[in-house]
Amino acid sequence: MNINGVHIDDTFAEAFGMKATRVLVTAQNLKWAYHAANAATGFATSVIACGCEAGVERKLEPTESPDGRPGASMLFFAMSSKELAKQLERRIGQCVLTAPTSAAFAGIDGGEPIPLGKNLRFFGDGFQLSKLIGGKRYWRVPVMDGEFLVQETTGMVKAVGGGNFLILADSRPQALAACEAAIEAMRQLPNVIMPFPGGVVRSGSKVGSKYQALMASTNDAFCPTIRGITKSELAPGIESVMEIVIDGLTDADIRGAMRAGIAAACTLGAANGIRRISAGNYGGKLGQFHFQLREIMG
Amino acid sequence: MNINGVHIDDTFAEAFGMKATRVLVTAQNLKWAYHAANAATGFATSVIACGCEAGVERKLEPTESPDGRPGASMLFFAMSSKELAKQLERRIGQCVLTAPTSAAFAGIDGGEPIPLGKNLRFFGDGFQLSKLIGGKRYWRVPVMDGEFLVQETTGMVKAVGGGNFLILADSRPQALAACEAAIEAMRQLPNVIMPFPGGVVRSGSKVGSKYQALMASTNDAFCPTIRGITKSELAPGIESVMEIVIDGLTDADIRGAMRAGIAAACTLGAANGIRRISAGNYGGKLGQFHFQLREIMG
Amino acid sequence: MNINGVHIDDTFAEAFGMKATRVLVTAQNLKWAYHAANAATGFATSVIACGCEAGVERKLEPTESPDGRPGASMLFFAMSSKELAKQLERRIGQCVLTAPTSAAFAGIDGGEPIPLGKNLRFFGDGFQLSKLIGGKRYWRVPVMDGEFLVQETTGMVKAVGGGNFLILADSRPQALAACEAAIEAMRQLPNVIMPFPGGVVRSGSKVGSKYQALMASTNDAFCPTIRGITKSELAPGIESVMEIVIDGLTDADIRGAMRAGIAAACTLGAANGIRRISAGNYGGKLGQFHFQLREIMG
Amino acid sequence: MNINGVHIDDTFAEAFGMKATRVLVTAQNLKWAYHAANAATGFATSVIACGCEAGVERKLEPTESPDGRPGASMLFFAMSSKELAKQLERRIGQCVLTAPTSAAFAGIDGGEPIPLGKNLRFFGDGFQLSKLIGGKRYWRVPVMDGEFLVQETTGMVKAVGGGNFLILADSRPQALAACEAAIEAMRQLPNVIMPFPGGVVRSGSKVGSKYQALMASTNDAFCPTIRGITKSELAPGIESVMEIVIDGLTDADIRGAMRAGIAAACTLGAANGIRRISAGNYGGKLGQFHFQLREIMG
Fold this sequence. Notes:
Oligomer: homotetramer
Order of helices and strands of chain A: EEEHHEEHEEEEEEHEEEEHEEH
Number of strands of chain A: 17
Helix content of chain A: 10-25%
Largest sheet of chain A: 12 strands, mixed
Distance between the termini of chain A: 9 Å
Number of helices of chain A: 6
Structural class of chain A: alpha+beta
Mean pLDDT of chain A: 96
């Protein structure tokens, strides 16, 4: 399969079951809503060392936000309900409760309720007030700039983490340009985040290492500078590979994001040094979700 | 004391000894350097729940960066050397090593060396190469987009955390405008970060709580909405209070940042609803550094 | 009429018939599309001295843009067909044709066709090529970075310029905060631009001046600093007034934008120093469109 | 000459004498200062169709701005004193006087004085007030949000327009990446602007055209898509060329900017598809300034 001169590998991305939730943060203006959202979803590229994977899903227009103010929608993914709840409490407590003019709301109505303001309310030291609107409970926690309005819970759902694809190019600027095109296209879609910095990861890994203490190490088969001294997957001329990892609420969301991202990367085409699209997997044994590139792009 | 109609309280900010380090990240362009730096310093508003306090200190021009590329300078603060080293390894490993086109360098030459690439190099699975330039060791770690160049260590120094001041205003938009003016002025100064979202915290806390499990709770004396039901510090008319917290490499750095920030906030003056500048302390018993507002602004 | 403590004046905005067109610009990524669009719509706050009023209407997602790349939608308004055509040729020629990786497309299918690439194509010095796709003509003009793809014409329609409302507040930061809220809400809506810097104008004018050469001068009745020496419209305590001017494709578009903007400004309310909403008119004699504030907000 | 595998042509850029001035705009915060500055310097890529060439020179920190507020420094270039004065009055009048919270100051103390607020003050309709501080005259013009403070004059000096260099690359994304690196490096330097959108122009022109009405047309010798049908300057493999044009206060400023920009572009090097640096000239007969690439990079 070939799109605009770019070879699409006959392979698949392997992804895992996760737990996810969405939180909406609003503020006096968009700038301050994003200050809160960026802080709360920072240092969240990988569950292993960050506790969760998180990101801003999209801008929230005043007309669609719960309190008529501009805001941002955040998605959080973790490997267990317990870890997700722990990360959420910490991140909302440190980065949204603290942020000037902010408020926080459930972004998923159904699912299993997990605490949003339920525990944070105690910061009010007994001065917090509860109100019930349309069957939903909110807390008004007194803070120095006025009140922090926060919904009691948000909804937790099953989700999918680790959708991915690789872009192989003649040079770094070309791989980066294709990634930027892909990320811009994928950011339009709801229910997904690309958790790495700017949405892109360049340090793909394989399971295991020659150092026993390490569980993972550089994916040497895809590293262009050591092509001559390892069993390489890279044809001559390919000098840079970048990966886009996707977490989504459902496998259909991941599929849609992969399709949009790969299509956008391929608009640059072979004329701009984009050679090949591949994907990362573990032979299909570890993850319950398999995303076949050719099926998705077919 | 009164600046442009703004009352300066006769009080002091109380701050603590910390450990700090600086890391420089560069990339193909400024956008991607900031993607890495923002991720690495995200979720780092308070040592208690985030492990460290961190932020982007400033933009790094190509002419002053170690590899002639644009970049960003990051500062990290923690309560102990051990915690700082742990946080640094995780955050650089998850958010800079992974970021396309990035490289990472020591931002402090002296001080006590702590690992920067020293442990991250093992990700190279034996393919990493060392080089010694001008007596400093660097690692070239093969990654998919080429190589991750990272200096072996960076310098750790004693530092000061928790400098602060409070802005008391007639309304939220006015307090926020004064904070924005303060933050813009403070961002010019080297050696300091303001770790909360956008540089501002609106949920000031007191030690202790009516709930035994909580070590801290809302600073009710400065919360305008409960003025009538608690022992308030707020005169009538003050409806919003915001705080700026500062971590700096030295007490002189904090002093300079407080001076610049308070001066900028006061340019808005009483005519724009800015009424009073105060500061947070614990009676002077906990922190070894005391920053007297009137001495600083004198 | 009163919204959240903000008085809505019983008055109307007076607006004029104009000619308008929309042009879509795409590029390799959003950043470069916006570089082109911002340049092309710069210095375009008022028809009198700028030739046209122009602005970025909204971001264009890759999935909805004509060539599958990210882009921006621009609106241009002028007092006559001739002036609009002249401004369009200059602005697209200087700021889009010149911009790296850009392409330009019609943003209005119907209406009266006016030249987009029709004259710009001659820049190709005879090397330009025409292609007809789906009944629409495009030009491929050879440029140094490859080709400038540009549609032959775009559609011109009747439109409305000069919709407006005034926000009266206790202080500048409060008026500005209300304007920011209004602009963020209005930016969601299609078919309108707010042509002044950042969407806001603070130098409202009246017709005529004590200086005979000037056709307009400061609207002294709304200037707080000269309240004591002129016939003022401002009650005591109002220290800052800002205006939002709106150009739209139809009067319904202006009406919708005014409603969204006033509603957003009023969310800040009297508690944040927002006192009154008014509007600018010339007694109803000059402009054919009258927008009654209370009818719009009713 | 060869830098990092990039061939430096033995040629020169040809530039012209111009008139220039600098204006400083400040505002309540950086965002609004930039709204004003971006509008005032928009649609100003080329003197021929825009009247002047203009751009934001740099951010202005509160500590260095005339009124202690954040701001932006703008440079304006025109072919004559008269045209410069006309453009300045229009652009400051339409885009700075109108911008909420703004003030405008001279950015050049010496030189020949040209009106800044001198004529704009009449907008105050007789309510404007003059004040003399340190021998400089300022006007306080009453406007709706308070007062527009504007210095009476700014300084005009001789300047140089049209410094330039060309980047020749294997593909568009590579040429664009090199331009971004160059622009980021050049933006650090004082006294220069790069007036095209984002600093880059892709539609280089030659004098004359096969169409008699046109004075300039596409520089076909540097257009890759018509290489086979014209007398091309492009070696096989070069598929994209972009140009950076520089206006500066002195020829030394242009020289410095060219050096910084070319050096930054060359850091990407041949490994990233950057092949050659050239420059645009008219055989040396039209412009009084010649910038030899090899001398500058020597």
